[in-house]
Amino acid sequence: MTEGGICAQGVGKQFRRYDPHRPRSLRRLLTQAPRLPRRADKFWALQDIDLTVAPGEMVGVVGRNGSGKSTLLRLVGGVLRPDAGALEISGRIGGLLDLNVGMHEELSGRDNALIGSVIAGLTRREAERRLPQIIEFSQLGEHIDAPVRTYSSGMKLRLGFATAIHAEPDVLLIDEVLSVGDMAFQARCYERIRKLRERGMAILLVTHDMSQVEKLCDRAVWLDRGTMVAEGEPEAVTLEYTAKMHARTMDSTPTNVPTRRLPGGIELKAGENRFGSQEYTIDRLRLTDRDEVEQVQVRVGDPLLLHIEMSADSSEVPIVGVSLTLADDPDATAVLDLNTQVDEVAPPNNGERGKLRLEIDRLDLPPGDYLLSIGLYAPNWEYAYDFHWRSYLLTISGQHQVAGVLNPPRRWVFG
To answer: Residues near 236 by Cβ (< 8 Å), separated by ≥ 6?
Structure first.
């Protein structure tokens, strides 16, 4: 592998805005009344971007939806050309921009790995020689010969990441996909990224996961409306970005939301432990055992079901997040943090969108008193619709039987 890098100076990208009055079919074009052509309305998706990624360096890019993150990746990847400034890339580029792009659904994982390796710049012979390493790293086992259409998103991540890194590009572009998959495989990805950086690979990571930026990156960049708002140490940039998002949630929280007493005795008060715009609301949360008997106390290793009732229309279902913290922890560090986006929960088409059940098969946590938080969030976590912070008490009794990070088997079931 040769050393690669990225150098952008004053880079900008312009797009045309969609014209809602343009004809959408040949018939409409021929039958609609003629009208004077409108001047094309253009906007800058990116403007005045100065960014370098040195060999062996990893830079994280954060920002809300529409800020220009993916446009930047596609410029670096050569999918788009800049309309302003200069962009120089040294070395061969590899990318994980979308799990579904570049994979042939009807072909097997083995065939996709070979094709992906050749597209990435390897010869057929090199691709075949590296195939056993790709299969081993992906941990797909016998599934490697099954059609990719049968794969889960986590399996596609394993195949795509394994193929990309074994093609050994000089510059690696990653867009969100490391948030998919189980924690054990993510740890393997992080370790391989560390080794590739030691060998001189430059990496540009786009993600909404602030912990990934803080854990993996040397620097971070915050984009907002196509411009760079901040650049610097990962923790400083992510803290500033997160504070801005929290401020947006606080600013959108109405003051006239009635106080509500919850079953555990905690009062839910707007601005104190309830935040969000209230565009969608959490109407009720019940904690039960598997027989749906309500519980506020469970034993170590017992199952726990969360029955969530929320307002949600037929066109959109918010991201639903659930976290658990020790009641006496002053830092409120989450010991369990789950959400429907990471678990790739898709709402059904039968109209049952206002009810959601989270089934945790085993709650392997030390005994003690815990406080549960639950929230409904806008796409890409831009702000909260309704967030109940540490508002539901749960007691866990018995003996602690496990150690390590909790990631229990679970299901989200609508209806």
So the answer is: 220, 230
* Residue 376, pLDDT score: 92
Angstrom distance (rounded) from CA 315 to CA 304: 30
Which has the closest alpha carbon to 203: 63, 101, 61, 68?
Answer: 61
Residue finishing a domain among 245, 271, 298: 245
Phi–psi pair at 270, nearest 5 degrees: -60, 135
Domain that holds residue 169: 5-18+39-245
Residue 33 counted as domain residue: no
Among 318, 391, 323, 396, smallest CA distance to 356 is for 318
Backbone angles phi, psi at 407, to 5 degrees: -150, 75
Of the residues 187, 220, 245, the one at which a domain ends: 245
Angle CA 202–9–75, to nearest 5: 60
Q: What is the pTM of this model?
A: 0.69
Q: Based on the structure, what is the number of domains in the chain?
A: 2
| Type of residue found at 315 | S
Q: Is the pLDDT of residue 20 over 60?
A: no
Residues 268 and 196 reside in one and the same domain = no
What backbone torsions phi and psi does residue 293 show, to the nearest 5 degrees? -90, 125
Q: Are residues 268 and 201 in the same domain?
A: no
d(CA 97, CA 74): 8
Which residues share a beta bridge with 204?
59, 173
User: Could you report the per-residue pLDDT of 162-178, keeping only the tens digit for each?
Assistant: 888 888 889 999 887 66
Instruction: Specify whether the CB–CB gap between 394 and 367 falls below 8 A.
Output: no
Rg for the chain, CA atoms, rounded: 24
Buried b (16+ CB within 10 A) or exposed e, 43-57: ebbbbebebebbbbb
| Tens digit of each residue's pLDDT (9 = 90 or more) over 252-294 | 888 888 999 987 788 999 989 999 999 899 999 999 988 888 8
